[in-house]
Amino acid sequence: MGLTAVAHHSIAGFDITKPITLTGVITKVQLINPHSILYIDVKKNGQIENWALEGSAPSQLQRSGVKDHLTVGTELIATGFRLKPVYASNWISSTFSGWNKSSAESSQAIDAVKANRIFLAGDLRIGNDIYHFGNGLKFNP
């Protein structure tokens, strides 16, 4: 199996030994197949970092009830796993397969790759509600 296929069809490209939690504000929402991507601003040491959160397809997000809550300016907490650095260069081509070229080459996507701020999100906490967003980590009940 090639690198692109591994990154797209499994979580092998993500470091599942080191789960992380991010708190941030949505800056951009891309609900396009095969993966939805949220960009969030995370405050760290007084600086703002923009992260790309990879999630499920829009139809799955609709079924989980989260799709209507994914709007710019919404604060959220996300659980998941960071992309392993070795996979960063292929993330755009594997994640954005089937997307239009402008989405894949957006400045936010390219910046996320350069800084390796790519995150396989699982559950999102928005307000008091928890929603399933992707194949990453789930919040403990």
Brief write-up:
With 141 residues, this protein is α+β, with helices and mostly antiparallel strands. The chain is 25% helix and 35% strand.
Uncertain stretches of 5 or more adjacent residues: 1-9
Helical percentage: 10-25%
* Oligomer description: single chain
Spatial arrangement of strands, main beta sheet: 1-2-3-5-4
Please outline the major beta sheet.
5 strands, mixed, barrel
- State the helix count: 5
- The overall pLDDT average reads 78
Short key terms for the protein model shown above:
141 residues, alpha+beta, five-stranded mixed β-barrel, 35% strand
Helix-strand layout with pairing:
Blueprint: H1 3-9, E1 20-31, E2 36-44, E3 47-54, H2 58-64, E4 75-82, H3 88-95, H4 101-104, H5 107-115, E5 118-126, E6 129-132
Parallel strand pairs: 3-5
Antiparallel strand pairs: 1-2, 1-4, 2-3, 4-5, 5-6
Helix pairs in contact: 1-3, 3-5
Structural overview:
The protein is an alpha+beta fold and 141 residues long. Helix 1 (3-9) packs across helix 3 and helix 3 (88-95) runs antiparallel to helix 5. It contains five helices and six strands. The model is unreliable at 1-9 (pLDDT under 50). The chain has helices at residues 3-9, 58-64, 88-95, 101-104, 107-115; strands spanning 20-31, 36-44, 47-54, 75-82, 118-126, 129-132. A five-stranded mixed barrel has the order 1-2-3-5-4.
